From TrEMBL:
<keyword id="KW-0786">Thiamine pyrophosphate</keyword>
<dbReference type="InterPro" id="IPR029035">
    <property type="entry name" value="DHS-like_NAD/FAD-binding_dom"/>
</dbReference>
<dbReference type="Pfam" id="PF02776">
    <property type="entry name" value="TPP_enzyme_N"/>
</dbReference>
<keyword id="KW-0464">Manganese</keyword>
<dbReference type="GO" id="GO:0030976">
    <property type="term" value="F:thiamine pyrophosphate binding"/>
</dbReference>
<keyword id="KW-0474">Menaquinone biosynthesis</keyword>
<keyword id="KW-0460">Magnesium</keyword>
<feature type="domain" description="Thiamine pyrophosphate enzyme N-terminal TPP-binding">
    <location>
        <begin position="13"/>
        <end position="124"/>
    </location>
</feature>
<dbReference type="Pfam" id="PF02775">
    <property type="entry name" value="TPP_enzyme_C"/>
</dbReference>
<dbReference type="GO" id="GO:0030145">
    <property type="term" value="F:manganese ion binding"/>
</dbReference>
<dbReference type="InterPro" id="IPR012001">
    <property type="entry name" value="Thiamin_PyroP_enz_TPP-bd_dom"/>
</dbReference>
<keyword id="KW-0808">Transferase</keyword>
<dbReference type="InterPro" id="IPR032264">
    <property type="entry name" value="MenD_middle"/>
</dbReference>
<comment type="subunit">
    <text>Homodimer.</text>
</comment>
<comment type="similarity">
    <text>Belongs to the TPP enzyme family. MenD subfamily.</text>
</comment>
<dbReference type="Pfam" id="PF16582">
    <property type="entry name" value="TPP_enzyme_M_2"/>
</dbReference>
<protein>
    <recommendedName>
        <fullName>2-succinyl-5-enolpyruvyl-6-hydroxy-3-cyclohexene-1-carboxylate synthase</fullName>
        <ecNumber>2.2.1.9</ecNumber>
    </recommendedName>
</protein>
Length: 584
């Protein structure tokens, strides 16, 4: 058997087993050393390959696609710095628990550490940011080797998805020649192969024992004022919103719902959902007045910084954090009891226990304050559109069943404030693992590759940072609307103490770009619009959703005016709560 046949059967069996175990999408960045993997994926009839030239963009594209599909996505690249360009997305995938299977081609062992071109040390390249690493064997073909590659492929998919999902890395040392021969018979299997040669283990859901459940509920006895907090919930199932709101209504507790929790949109009840808590907790008097007796949190820490202050100020309050699997997402260092159990199952089981007696007045106060804040966010319109109004207008017209992908910094905070509850089913995604602005365009475009209409909201710095991510949208004709909020720099820094330093602020933090993004839209053949009022924005967004392909809707704002407008909103809410209603 010659080298080409050995390489063909080795690679084809590996690729086929990955597909047998659930891989439906692969993102490929062209290169020479990765030729066998790229060709095998491209030839297999049961997978969709996406070619994204820049590896950094490709990795974030895969991240967005995996978030949207809630399934592992494979990545393929050549050797050298190509693999290193995956690093930012691998870090994000690790912290945001997104399953990626990274397949890097490499020089064979005899070409390492001898000055061969395009050769770096790729062993454990991503360090602790992958759940599992494997250096693959040099290709050979016998039944034992083909079983080996299938077992590694199956294990890679399983490891990416088991427990808390995340990235895994397999490194392939490959000798030349690198082409494959698809005329060979039976390359997608070996003679001893059964229907499914390397089955993924069956994983059950975690749940508390009856004794553990009773012990948990007993800790809430004689407590009157509780909070249910729902942070980002990338791994929650579709039944979770129904079950957690049912629990909140039975126990008469408010739910502080992060925009990434999945609770603000959909047909489930919104009766006890407090979506304006970020604005409410900005006020120190409200934080002091609304001190809870306990907190039950599902998912990661919410986006809201005022909520973080609130938690830090109440470090002695009993806090219970529910995680699907192991994990320690508690950045305040407060004393916390972790509950490792499926959140939907836990809510169902808590609904079946005797109802604790909690304060109805406590719930009433939260709902009354939420109503005040909602009214301030929903009504009133400026002559020229503000950043908050842009999110408010988007919320009104975004299509049912679509996805909102949110950038970091100011964008996600405005979504937290102004994307209020709605019965329209909307999926909200964001890269809140490492919270960086890099790769946001590619992530949104990758999410659109799953076939669902996507609206990407981000700032001008995030857009600039990843403009080459637009190429995949153009190349594949993906349906995505980008709401680009351009305040000519880093708007979020205007809310921070750095803004008080006039000497260095603009150069180091404001960082104005002074770019005409209309020309970027022209480069990538996108539809481009620049509305100036909220009504005009809504009309343009609505029109963009009826168009195919890429649309860029740019809203230009002023950073200083934006800060002033936000502060006025927050103060008006506090004034009404304090003086008009006399609630606090």
């Amino acid at each position: 058997m010659n080298h080409t046949e050995i390489l063909t059967r080795y690679t084809a069996n590996f690729v086929d087993e990955m597909i047998q175990n659930g891989i439906q999408h692969v993102v490929i960045s062209p290169g020479s050393r990765s030729t066998p993997l790229s060709l095998a994926f491209a030839e297999h009839e049961h997978i969709k390959e996406w070619v994204v030239i820049d590896e950094r963009s490709a990795a974030f594209f895969a991240l967005g696609l995996a978030k949207q599909t809630k399934a592992a996505v494979a990545l393929v690249c050549t050797s050298g710095t190509a693999a290193a360009n995956y690093y930012p997305a691998v870090v994000e995938a690790y912290y945001s628990r997104v399953p990626l299977v990274i397949l890097t081609a490499d020089r064979p062992h005899e070409l390492r550490d001898v000055g061969a071109p395009q050769t770096i040390d790729q062993l454990h390249l991503f360090g602790n940011y992958v759940k599992w690493f494997q250096e693959m064997a040099i290709p050979e073909v016998d039944d034992g080797m083909l079983r080996y590659v299938r077992q590694k492929a199956a294990r890679a998919v399983y490891m990416a998805c088991e427990g808390n999902p995340g990235p895994v890395h397999l490194n392939f040392p490959l000798r030349e020649p690198l082409t494959l021969d698809f005329s060979l018979e039976g390359i997608w299997k070996y003679k001893g192969m059964v229907e499914h040669s390397a089955r993924i283990p069956l994983d059950g859901k975690k749940r508390l024992t009856e004794e553990q459940l009773e012990a948990f509920v007993s800790q809430l006895t004689n407590k009157k004022k509780g909070l249910i907090v729902c942070g980002p919930q990338a791994d929650a199932d579709e039944q979770f919103p129904e079950q957690v709101v049912a629990l909140a209504e039975k126990w008469q507790l408010p739910i502080l719902a992060d925009p990434l929790s999945g609770l603000r949109s959909g047909t489930h009840s919104k009766e006890n959902i407090i979506e304006t808590y970020d604005a409410l907790l900005k006020n120190k008097v409200i934080r002091d007045r609304m001190k809870p007796d306990f907190i039950i949190r599902f998912g990661a820490m919410p986006v809201s910084k005022p909520y973080l202050f609130f938690i830090k100020e109440n470090a002695t309050i009993p806090q219970f954090v529910v995680e699907n699997h192991s994990g320690y997402r508690e950045p305040t260092g407060n004393v916390t009891e972790f509950i490792y159990a499926d959140p939907t199952t836990l809510c169902e089981e808590l609904l079946a226990v005797d109802q604790p007696a909690f304060s109805e007045e406590w719930l009433h106060d939260w709902k009354a304050m939420n109503k005040v804040a909602r009214n301030h966010f929903l009504f009133g319109m400026e002559e020229k559109i503000t950043e908050g109004e842009a999110i408010r207008g988007l919320r009104e017209v975004i299509p049912e069943g679509s996805t909102l992908y949110v950038g970091n910094s100011m964008a996600v905070r405005d979504v937290d404030t102004f994307f209020l509850t709605d019965d329209k089913p909307i999926s909200v995604l964001a890269n809140r693992g490492a919270n960086g602005i890099d790769g946001m365009v590619s992530s949104g475009v990758g999410a659109a590759a799953a076939g669902k209409r996507v609206t990407l909201v981000l700032g001008d710095l995030s857009f600039f940072h990843d403009m080459n991510g637009l190429h995949a949208a153009k190349h594949y004709g993906l349906d995505i609307t980008i709401l680009l909020i351009n305040n000519n720099g880093g708007g979020i820094f205007s809310f921070l103490p750095q803004a008080e330093d006039p000497k260095h602020f603009e150069a180091l933090f404001g960082t104005p770009l002074h770019l005409d993004f209309r020309k970027a839209a022209e480069l990538y053949e996108a539809n481009y619009f620049a509305p100036e009022t909220e009504e005009e924005l809504k009309e343009i967004l609505q029109a963009s959703y009826e168009k195919k392909g890429l649309s860029i809707v740019e809203v230009k704002t002023d950073r200083e005016e934006n800060v002033k407008w936000h502060h006025e909103k927050w103060q008006a809410i506090a004034d009404e709560i304090f003086f008009k209603n006399g609630m606090v």
